[in-house]
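Researcher: Last one for today. Full complex below.
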Amino acid sequence: MTTWIFKFSSKKLNILAAAAAVLFFNFQLSAATNEIIITGGIESARPIGVVPFKYLGNSTLPENLSDVVASDLQRSGKFNPSKLSSMPQFPTTDTEVNYAAWAQKGVDMVLVGSVESTGLNQFLVTFELIDVLRAQATGGQTKTLENGKLVMTRDHVIEKRTKTINGSDFRQYAHIISDIVYEKLTGERGAFLTRIAYIKVLDRDTNPKPFRLVIADYDNVNPTTLLSSPEPLMSPTWSPDGNTLAYVSFENKRSQIYLQDIYTTSRTRLTDFPGINGAPNFSPDGKKLAMVLSKDGNPEIYIMDLQTRNLTRITRNRAIDTEPSWTPDGKSLIFTSERGGKPQIYRVNLASNRKSRLTFEGEMNLGGAVTPDNSQLVIVNRTRGDYHIAKQDLKNGDMLVLTNTYLDESPSISPNGSMIIYSVLENGKPALAWVSLDGRFSFKEPVADGEVKSPSWSPFLL
Amino acid sequence: MLNKNALKTLLIVVPLVTLAACKSGPTEAELEAEANRQAEVAAQQVADAKAVADADAKRVEVAKADALQKAKEMVEDEKAKLVAQNVVYFDFDRASVKSDFHSVLDMHAAFLVKNPGQAIVIEGHCDNRGTPEYNIALGERRAKSVETYLMNAGVSSSQVSVVSYGEEKPAVQGGSEYAFAQNRRGIVVYQ
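Model: Here's the assembly. Have a good evening.
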């Protein structure tokens, strides 16, 4: 009898342990930062010490803030966060920082902070961004004149903020800290509080609905499936307010363009013309959608007014015209055309309808998009049969190939113009990869449980 | 006197009775029965004739149905044969129908001309080199070149529709030359 009871409890314990393991695993999956494989350019990144934030409290923290910040800064390619093992100390505030020790490690920027539990699911977060070299120069104190009086300031503390947040807002607040650090140190707006959309294709033999439309945080954490379909989904693209996706669905055995609200998930079928309904792209003001329709014989670029649903035909040509993309000012479209024989990038001025060819290097150039500062054209370049992401300076025409992975395509530029997300073929399966616009820094995600393709980076969300 | 009269009566009555008894023609009942019998025979003959006619008609009908069934089976057989060879492959970056596939498309065309009620969808597919959007355009061009071939061979445009799946539905996964070659295809799908 005793033995039996013992056996029973042991079994129960095992079940509990298994349940706990599952919970822990899920927690890890949803909360941890995604593993990335850096494929180049870490040496050009600026060292920064992101010291683990000290936690004052007993409850389990929903998220490790400083881990997310370090991951964000690393993913930007502009920073190389120190490993824990190479940190000389673990200070919580500026007053605890040993400037010389960090400077000696070659780290001239340090982020320190703390998290304090202040109530049910309430946390007080404090952080300071410290310029180690400035602090060394001033001894941590600077005398300045204020209202005719000499006061001591600490101008080596570049930023100091305190904020109370909810347990559910940790990840978002970590991205906000990253945005602040990034902007203070680069002068450029951070794009950590953004999302990506992409198409995931699961095993078609075992899944009745293998085609998935997925949105996730910019770092592919918190993926959410918006739609599952038995037939292909393509070309997701964001509205400028970040609320709506346009994409192509073959659910009715032909291509049709849909709009879907990402919050309510309600869908509207926008087009159902004979032939191709493809390559949607929102105008910068969100009022129009450029698209490709082949209803008049072959693929042509059209612009649809989303209010009236009226179509304006932009190209009139026997060759393939596709992949329309708006310039940031909304006055021109970039598109791919075969009118010269092979696919190359063209620009059409929407006021004059004048078209000009932009690319000449390589066998083909496809999928063009202009950076937010209007200076560069990002393209898929084919040279000697290899497809790579490249950029071309719009002023002097210089082209630079940015990637050296295999079958690189579907580039999408971050809203601050610093990074490009694209799809690569990894062991024969499409996967996500990132490259900085200067081409120096690149990384990819380990192969996922399905094909991941057609990534699209959202606009700024705050 | 009485006896004489009785005898006289007898002499008259007996032959009468005998006459009556000896009347050789059928009775009324017999006549009616005979008429009935003859009517029955006639009806039977009509029924028999009708049965024969019906059987003949049925035989014809069955034969007709058989023939129809056979024809249908032949159509189905022919269709099955065509469905078994409904893929044409394309060269890299090309959309023209290669001469290797003319004979197979000619067979499809002949069948479609004979069966004008048969509708088909031509699917165009690509390998995964090049952008997905460009490949949708290329896939449509491939499907249309198959459509044009069939229409030149007499197939009515009302029987044919075209859809491009670009690189979205590969026959073979992966990035090998073999996969590429298997995926650059047009498929004639019978509806």
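The interface with chain A takes residues 121, 128-134, 136-138, 140-141, 162-166, 168-169, 173-176, 179 of chain B (CB under 8 Å). The helical segments of chain B are 2-22, 28-84, 102-114, 132-152, 177-183.
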